[in-house]
Amino acid sequence: MKVELVSVGTELLKGKINTDNAYLGEKLDSIGLAIDRETTVGDSREKIESVLHEVLSRSDIIITTGGLGPTFDDLTREVMAKVLKKKLAFDGEVMHQIAAHFAKRDLEMPKDNEKQAYIIEGAKVIPNKVGTAPGMVVERRTETASKSKVQKVSVIIMLPGPPREMKPMVEEVVLPYLKERYERKILKKCVLHISGLTESAVYEKIKEVVEIERRMEGGILRFSILAHLTKIDVEISGEGENELLVDEMLHKARQEIYDCLEDYIYGEDKDTLESVVGGLLLSKRLTLAVAESCTGGLIGDRITDVAGSSVYFKEGVVAYSNEAKKRVLGVKEETVNEFGAVSQESALEMARGVQRISGTDIGLATTGITGPTGGTAKKPVGLVYVALVWPKMGVELCREFRFNGKRKEIKESTAANALDILIRALKEKD
Amino acid sequence: MKVELVSVGTELLKGKINTDNAYLGEKLDSIGLAIDRETTVGDSREKIESVLHEVLSRSDIIITTGGLGPTFDDLTREVMAKVLKKKLAFDGEVMHQIAAHFAKRDLEMPKDNEKQAYIIEGAKVIPNKVGTAPGMVVERRTETASKSKVQKVSVIIMLPGPPREMKPMVEEVVLPYLKERYERKILKKCVLHISGLTESAVYEKIKEVVEIERRMEGGILRFSILAHLTKIDVEISGEGENELLVDEMLHKARQEIYDCLEDYIYGEDKDTLESVVGGLLLSKRLTLAVAESCTGGLIGDRITDVAGSSVYFKEGVVAYSNEAKKRVLGVKEETVNEFGAVSQESALEMARGVQRISGTDIGLATTGITGPTGGTAKKPVGLVYVALVWPKMGVELCREFRFNGKRKEIKESTAANALDILIRALKEKD
Fold it and tell me: What interface predicted TM-score (ipTM) does this complex get?
């Protein structure tokens, strides 16, 4: 089953990040459909047309995103109709939904939105609950060989580009539809998230165990290693006919990776550093407060991305000025003068301060130089201290880091390492 | 000049977001090279080979990212050599750089990294200052028609996938190289960032002015409208032979858009809400403190993404618990009891509190229900209050929002709107 994605939009060729493909890739993967190829093309009639011709000639499932909007540069609907040799027909029901969208918001419907009520003949409409562009599913029958009369059915799914509109359509209509139509081999995977090692170091440690494909009794195991700015992922996927055998195969491979990397694996699959932190704090009934200088609120932001975080996350102080470090957190004047605001001593006093004023179990603090200016020979840009105090357990620790990269990368690396330090402390005191 | 990007990596087909293409799109656009098409393909010898054959047959500039790493699933180097019918040759200088990379970090070089010292015959090496995978530039001469003996030169540029390694190569080697080789028509653009309107409303307001292409004396003007979660962009690009005429044409078009949308444009080009906030605060010599509940630190994080923000951003309080709202910010017990922590009254007391304790000019506060639980019929998920106080100017205001979307989207929308409110207040009191 060949699957291809086509993204339409000049903005995607000029600097806009495409998150739709990543989302669709993950969702299709979850139902065992592997994408063969992704193509992005601009808002040009000729170029869209030539890409659609190509993908229709070689693939079974084609999913397009983008180009269904109301404006002059939204062309996917028209060009697809042309390539499929179908007409666009006005759909009263869709028009009604679009009108209701505006009415509900007390807005007058712009005339151009009428264009969105024109649907490719024979297409199934996917209602848009968030915006105005309806999605479409078209099943196209072609004869594979002129004599055999065997019909090949390809499926064309057209989705709007904005993720908020596209995602509910995928969840509610597209995935159930594809699952029913193409349910096939059992395909499962697990991803192990690793911090504290480089990509080569991870590979070095697991190279005896992994190979690109391992054929086994239960099916095929595949391994891949992915490097991100603040973590390395090891992905294991298993494919086979029998769910139990696939599970067993995966379970065994997962254990082999754990044997090589135990101390460095902080989570699996959907786990994030902040969700692991949340799980550990919840299960131990502990509370947390953070004092952030160089991360500017990023740690609080990440922690509060987790639903229910208000149970364990009580407060944060973004002590960006030295005055705030002293007044709010009680960092001593002498400490700042003698060691500087970016020092082990200040970091520890910040962590102690935020733990004390908030009355939480644990205090976590960051201070550092994110640049581009403000660095010196002794304290260069990228120098960061992360401190953690946990009085009940007698824990007081501070780690120094020297990160490379730009301001935003240093902030990201600091936040990830602070969460990693917290996880290690929570696990050690188990 | 046909330009194509090819991204290699199974992870990109399974859920990893591709940011390399967005970066390259923006950079190439800035030197007047428009990307024709982007293709993403997995780590499979056959599939990479067939994509490379296709793109080489139809395009003049091909840039690949990914697949240059040391592990078994990094195949771009080998497959490209095969497709170009060239050998891979060991390069001692590159080997030396890779070895130095590990030596500098006091690490032993894994054996597998040796693979990265094999370079396509005749390629120019792009040194990797951050990691181990070198980039390559290959110029390939082919005869366009067998009789004419006219040589066509296509350029193949191979870059590593990790943005930290790829970006410096692009800045330092690839862009200067392409600029020198392909400098062509003057191409300039400007982007206007808009908040407070929907995409259709923006289009409605400017439709008399914009069209997909407008041919003028100075060249061609192009318009496009891009919808993001928290802003709409209007992009105007101008192409022509004469820089002065292109500038003039762009300037005029820009003014036309301003005439239609004045009140809603908060910035241009590289401006972000946080950079505009920073510019305004700096020029007015004002200071800011924020009290965040539902945004959890995101506003502080965004504000401190701007270099030099410590001049005007003094501190933030992430008052996630009601106890912190009362103790740190002085929100009254009665206020929380009578109106709730998510109310206009609490938001205003939070803003007043953080302004008072920090002694800054302005206090900004957020409180709301980000879900997925915690909503009620009267106070549903998505209900958010943003308050701003600026005592010297006698400003005290609070706005209510009802956002749709998931937790993260509600946080993002709240932060964007809080910054927008701050910008409007700063501009109004000019």
Answer: 0.71
Q: How far apart are CA B336 and CA B320, in angstroms?
A: 13
For A13, which of B38, B210, B226 is closest by C-beta distance? B38
Distance between CA atoms of A244 and A240, rounded to whole angstroms? 10
CA pair distance A170, A130, nearest whole angstrom: 13
Which ranges in chain B are annotated with CATH 3.90.950.20?
Answer: 273-428
What is the tens place of the pLDDT at every residue in A241-251?
888 999 999 99
**Considering only CB atoms, which chain B residues are within 8 Å of A201?**
107, 110
Instruction: Tell me the pLDDT tens digit for each residue of A89-148.
Output: 999 999 999 998 888 877 888 888 899 999 999 999 999 988 899 999 999 987 655 555
CB contact under 8 A, A19 and B17: yes
Residues A186-268, CATH architecture: 2-Layer Sandwich (3.30)
Interface mutation target, options A1, A29, A71, chain B, most CBs of B under 10 Å: A71
Residue B347 CA from chain centroid, whole number: 31
B354 C-beta neighbours (distance < 10 Å), count: 29
| Residue to substitute from B288, B318, B322, B413, interface A, most A β-carbons within 10 A | B318
Reported as a single tens digit per residue, the pLDDT across A339-380 is: 999 999 999 999 999 999 999 999 999 999 999 988 999 999
> From 3.40.50.620, 3.30.565.10, 3.90.950.20, 2.30.30.40, which CATH number describes the A273-428 domain?
3.90.950.20
Beta carbons within 10 angstroms of residue A295's beta carbon: 32
Nearest CA-CA partner of A62 in A48, A72, A52: A52
Count CA within 13 A, CB hemisphere, residue A204. Answer: 12
Cβ proximity of B212 and A73 under 8 Å:
yes
Cross-strand pairs, B398: B387
Compute the C-alpha angle A15/A21/A24, nearest 5°: 160
Backbone angles phi, psi at A137, to 5 degrees: -120, 125
CB A313 within 8 A of CB A302: no
CB B136 within 8 A of CB B103: no
- Amino acid present at B68: L
Rg (chain A; Cα; Å):
27
Chain B: closest CA distance from residue A374 (Å): 9
Residue limits of CATH 3.40.980.10 in chain B: 3-182
**Phi/psi of residue A251, nearest 5 degrees:** -60, -40
Query: Are B384 and B328 in contact, with CB atoms under 8 Å apart?
Result: no
Is the domain covering B3-182 a CATH 3.40.440.10 domain? no
Whole-model pTM: value is 0.73
- DSSP structure class, residue B18: B
CATH 3.30.70.2860 residue ranges of chain A are 186-268
Question: Do residues B317 and B328 touch, judged by C-beta distance below 8 A?
Answer: yes
Residue of chain A minimizing CA distance to B226? A11
| Strand, coil or helix: B94 | helix
Contacting residues of B for A312, CB less than 8 Å apart: none
Asked whether B138 and B125 are in contact (CB, 8 A), the reply is: no
Give CB contacts under 8 A, 24+ apart, made by B93-100: B93/B125, B94/B119, B94/B125, B94/B134, B97/B127, B97/B128, B97/B134, B98/B132
The residue among A115, A199, A236, A301 with the most chain B CBs within 10 A of its CB, best to mutate, is: A301
Would you place residue B430 in the very low, low, confident or very high pLDDT band (cuts 50, 70, 90)?
low
Size of interface A-B (CB pairs under 8 A): 302
CA atoms in the 13 A half-sphere facing the CB of B17: 11
Residue A324 identity: A
| Chain B, nearest residue to A224 by Cα | B73
The distance of A223 to chain B (nearest Cα, Å) reads 9
Q: Where are the beta strands (DSSP E) in B228-350?
A: 232-240, 265-268, 288-292, 313-319
Model pLDDT for residues B108-128, shown as the tens digit of each residue: 888 888 999 999 999 999 999
